[in-house]
Amino acid sequence: MTATERGFLADAPPQRLYLDIDVIIAALVATEPHHVRCKAFLQRVQHLGLTTLYLSSYSWIEYLHVVSRKSFRDRLDPVLRTHLSVDRWIERGVREAYVRYFASLLTDTLQAFAWVSVAVNTAVAVQAIEEMAEHNLAGGDATHLGAMQVSGVHDLASLDAQYRRVDWLYLWNDHIHDTQSSATSPAGRPSS
Q: How many CB atoms lie within 10 A of CB 177?
């Protein structure tokens, strides 16, 4: 059995929705491949006002890790790259300002929603380990599922095709991964 897949605009958003960082990044950064679709989805969720968003404390770390990668920085709009002095990445002050910029971008976006941060604790870790074993997932993906399980959330917005094999999920992916290479997920994470 596989996850039940949902379309961004075809289906009514759920009451509780866990966000994977690939959807967040695509919605926030105009140079990302699925920016228009992910941004429209989050705008719809916001406009309807019926959904509480969920992220884990791990989501923040993963988000900042992905946006700090050189491959991500190289894809940024040239004006933003200049504004953030990306070419001087070796300088600590540049990195600190860059991380603050992207952390603020996420914080400011979340303020428009009702949202919950799920602490990654022992209960989440136990669930994550079970998900790793049952669904052959990497630790980060399993951690998100563990946070969802502990929170009683079954809907996940993610472009990561790995989640398709999780039978208890309602996967909000707009069928995007049906049209992209399976070698790499949109956030630049290698597929398992």
A: 22
How far is it, in rounded angstroms, from Cα 165 to Cα 168? 9
Domain of residue 117, residue span: 4-75+104-175
Q: Is residue 122 part of a domain?
A: yes
| Rg, C-alpha atoms of the chain | 16
Q: What CATH number corresponds to the domain at position 149?
A: 3.40.50.1010
What is the per-residue pLDDT for 179?
Answer: 52
Tell me whether residue 188 is in a domain. Answer: no
- The alpha carbon torsion through 33, 36, 39, 40 (nearest 10 deg) reads -150
In-domain check, residue 190: no
Pick from 176, 192, 189, 178: which is nearest to 27 by CA? Answer: 176
pLDDT tens by residue, 121-147? 999 999 999 999 999 999 999 999 999
Measured between alpha carbons, how far is 176 from 68 in angstroms, rounded to an integer? 24
Q: How many of the other CB atoms lie within 10 Å of CB of 85?
A: 14
Mean pLDDT (the chain) is: 91
Domain count, the chain: 1
Q: What is the pLDDT of residue 1?
A: 72
Q: How far apart are the C-alpha atoms of 12 and 186, rounded to whole Å?
A: 24
pTM of the model: 0.89
